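Structure in, sequence out. Go:
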């Protein structure tokens, strides 16, 4: 069992910021990356609202800057996934990954969230063969193709706009007649000649034969159903927190978001949380960075108090 002072679970903006702060405080943090180094922003195309980048940047570029920054001060980044946590007896906490086992005096949980599923027939079956949750990852495979995007928020608009680089057409299916997305992305989506909207509609089934071929949608106002032919379906209907590992150990709300106090601490002393795992409201890179910083400062103080 390897002994650590502090382990940071997750390597998105919250985790990497916590790493920068705890490393500068000479706590020698170990970051366990999770399945994707950088978390959700590593699959985000354009980032236009992160301070300090007036011309915008990309998710992967920002991750690379943050990773370098964390490593510069001595953070160690382990590319692995946590498979089990045992917080029951208090500090030190036990953590298992696929390849290792650790004991850590303090923990900062920054494991983020994952794309929400529609939960309709065909969705899981056609993942990788037409169904995708990431335009940046898969858009390239849909050159001159007909694409559907499901959702009405900022993510859906961002995906739709990005996909117009490749696709012949992009039709957005939204369950209401009004977008949730903010004004800027809404305006850009409405102005894009390749994007059209199918309002008041929900996906009933994704159908295919080898690859996705069509989607059956139902109009929630008229109850009419129609089949839309498509080569790809990009689902962007929000996220759910990755808190399953902590079920029964850490307090969470009914949606699974970890509950923290105003010092970013969970119900277990020495276990802190930051970023989207505990933030159902803001979910921005800038807020995750702030929360990661706050959690690191409070974890440092907590460790100091224990000595
Ligand atoms: P979101 O804001 O929660 O939007 C989810 C969208 O999916 C909503 O339009 C919702 O419909 C729809 N939806 C949810 N469940 C559904 C279901 N089962 N079937 C069909 N439709 C469903 O999520 P998001 O777009 O991922 O954004 C998350 C946060 O990140 C937001 O705070 C957003 O502002 C931020 N964000 C910002 C940017 C940016 O500024 N560049 C980019 C991406 C995300 P309803 O509208 O009817 O609820």
């Amino acid at each position: 069992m390897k002994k650590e002072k502090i382990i940071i679970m997750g390597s998105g903006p919250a985790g990497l910021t916590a790493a920068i702060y705890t490393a500068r405080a000479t706590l020698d943090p170990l970051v366990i990356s999770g399945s994707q180094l950088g978390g959700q922003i590593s699959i985000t195309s354009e980032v236009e609202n992160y301070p300090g980048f007036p011309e915008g940047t990309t998710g992967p570029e920002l991750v690379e800057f943050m990773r370098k920054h964390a490593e510069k001060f001595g953070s160690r980044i382990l590319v692995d996934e946590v498979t089990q946590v045992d917080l029951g007896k208090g500090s030190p906490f036990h953590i298992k990954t696929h390849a290792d086992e650790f004991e850590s005096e303090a923990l900062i949980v920054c494991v983020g969230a994952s794309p929400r599923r529609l939960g309709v027939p065909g969705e899981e079956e056609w993942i990788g063969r037409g169904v995708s949750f990431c335009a940046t990852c898969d858009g390239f495979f849909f050159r001159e193709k007909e694409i559907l995007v499901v959702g009405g928020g900022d993510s859906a608009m961002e995906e739709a706009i990005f996909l117009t680089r490749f696709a012949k057409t992009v039709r957005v299916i939204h369950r209401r007649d009004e977008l949730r997305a903010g004004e800027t992305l809404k305006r850009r989506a409405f102005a894009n000649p390749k994007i059209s909207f199918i309002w008041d509609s929900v996906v009933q089934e994704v159908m295919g034969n080898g690859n996705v071929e069509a989607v059956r949608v139902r109009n929630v106002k008229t109850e009419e159903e129609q089949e839309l032919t498509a080569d790809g379906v990009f689902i962007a209907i929000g996220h759910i927190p990755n808190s399953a590992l902590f079920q029964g150990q850490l307090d969470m709300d009914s949606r699974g978001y970890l509950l923290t106090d105003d010092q970013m601490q969970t119900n277990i002393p020495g276990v802190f949380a930051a970023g989207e795992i505990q933030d159902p409201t803001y979910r921005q890179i800038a807020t995750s960075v702030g929360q990661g910083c706050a959690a690191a400062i409070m974890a440092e103080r907590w460790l100091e108090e224990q000595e």
